[in-house]
Amino acid sequence: MFSRKARRASNRRRLSLLLACLVIAGCASHSVPLRDARQAYYAGDLRRADELLVKASSKRSRDADVLKLDQAMLHLAAGRADEAERLLREVRDRFDHLEQKDVREATLSLLTDDTRRAYAGEDYEKVMIRSMLALSNLMRDGSDAEAYCLQVDQKQAEIIETGVPGEEENPKLGYKRVAFGSYLHGVLREASHLHYDDAARSFGQVAAWEPNFIGVQSDLQRVSAGVHSAPDHGVVYVFALVGRGPYKEETAAEATSNALLVADRILSAVGDHTLPPTIAPVKIPRVVAPVNEVDGVYVAVDERPFGVTQTVTNVNDLAVDQCQATMNHTIARAVVRRVVKKATVYTAKDQMKVDNGLLNFAFDAAGVVWEATESADTRCWGLLPAQIQVTRIELPVGTHQLSLGPARGGQPIGPANSAAVQVENGRNTYVLVSYPTREMVGEILTATP
Amino acid sequence: MDRRRFLQASSATVAAGSLAVLSGCRGHQYAHVLKDNQQDMVGSHTAGAETFNPLIDEAVARLLARQQSSFHQAGYQPEPVGPRRICFVGVENASAEELGDFKEQVYEQIDSQILQSQMFQPISRRFVETALRETRLRPDSLFMPENMRVFAAVLEQQGQPFDYLLFAKLTSGTTTANKDYQRDYLLTLDLVNVHTGQYDKESAKIRKAYHKSAMGKLSKFNPFQ
Description:
The structure holds two protein chains of two kinds.
Chain A: H1 2-23, H2 31-42, H3 46-59, H4 64-77, H5 81-98, H6 103-111, H7 123-138, H8 145-162, H9 180-191, H10 196-209, H11 215-225, E1 233-244, E2 247-253, H12 257-270, E3 282-288, E4 296-301, E5 304-308, E6 310-314, H13 315-325, H14 327-351, H15 357-372, E7 385-396, E8 398-408, E9 411-412, E10 417-423, E11 428-435, E12 441-447
Helix pairs in contact in A: 1-15, 2-3, 3-4, 4-5, 5-7, 7-8, 7-13, 8-9, 9-10, 10-11, 12-14, 14-15
Chain B: H1 3-21, H2 49-73, E1 84-94, H3 102-117, E2 120-122, H4 125-135, H5 145-157, E3 164-177, E4 180-193, E5 199-210, H6 214-220
Parallel strand pairs in B: 1-2, 1-3
Antiparallel strand pairs in B: 3-4, 4-5
């Protein structure tokens, strides 16, 4: 009688442990609750998008930073460049802080999944924050734009140099560079009429990093031997945020031999053991580049066609390439987590001397559920554009009517939106427009810092 | 070792080891103000304060000293009353490194030191930029007499006549020895008298060695060798 009671109590304790394992298991994917907010943004309903983002951020504290990034894009499109800059700066500083390792989070993420970690941003996001900071500041007063441009280059150099801790070969050495920071730096330096040498250096860098950006060749020629603009002329730069940018989704990945090598190194570093013989596919985040119907913005000045914007930074390509470059490490982390979870279940069974067939089955089932409930970390900056594009227009001093519309393959595919721009002698005027789809989002922003 | 034993044995070590591998807690960043007598940090990859500050100090001091002596030697000639007006056009970076935020700092430091000398009275940079915008002249084209005259006339219209044009140029020379390299930084100041076309030039040099490792430094600069 006594032994039966004791056995029941013991079984209850074991089941409690199983439940505890399930409670700390991973949670649902990031992308679903935000879909509505992002759809509202793409539909041009900025107010609705803002409401949904605010609502989401009050419920999902772990997503707060990426939600702020989305809000910043929304503010920028709506013409609130100062608010956008404030949010971007806040997240930049927070990501810098979160880049440091945290032992508690690292352990918890091994027992659950990566969604338990504070999100420190993907490499491309860290660089793009600084790029968007430069753009936001430029559309405000431009006083800090040069500093942000320098930060773009500094950050990407730092990311590439740091590599992936624990990996013998640095997979980030092959990262494609973001040319936007250098381009804007060159534009700003040229506008001083004093620093043509800096401008030439910056444009030279852009030409090397973004060889498909043909427009920079004429920039390079001009700053090397010419001048900013003809007398009684000024320059209009049209910056366009074109297409829908990258997002992440969960996928099941086979543990490739290269990934297993990395995982083995991590495991070997913490003990004298090797990997188990087989590893089932693991859940990892994968960067997806959406197919966009718009690939440029056509520009007309005073009702005369001028041309189409050109890509200075392709965010989609950048994000996909970086995801691919670090894929082995991502899979390896998931494999290590799988091993830890399996080991924990087996150890628990041994420690508790599970000899009951049903309880043994329950433990195994719980182990399977524990592994199955983990989610890939799909948090990301969802409202990034697919491309940052630009075109340079030299115009006589005075007011001009600028028309901007969506384009594909160099041809207009939708109605244009117009704005009046003031061109000043020897100065730059900046215009920012956002075309995530064939409909413009927000308004055409103009600034003459 | 079978799979079960492997997993059992590894559970504890993995958990403990993961702490070791992924260890560390997020901390705050710290900073402190350097006192005047404290050494500048030394840039590990490019030149920084440790290079530019002494370069500027030396180049400007040499130029001013030479101007001072020529001033005394030519003392019998009638000299303009008060400090001579100087138009500092800018710093050209022709070195292998980008100057980043140091470019403006180099300009301002040179400008301030010239002002402090009381031999020269620099023209505000805002006037210089406005004149360049007005004339659409490139800074490197101001050496041409005709361009110089046009530029001087515009500044004079703005109430900023000047006697001298000053250019600064930073160059570098790199010597590579396997993975290590030495880079010589040269700051040159060119001074042109716009009235006579007379030209003066001074420069300062700093040599710096970069090493991939501490051993690399030791092997090339062993104090006991």
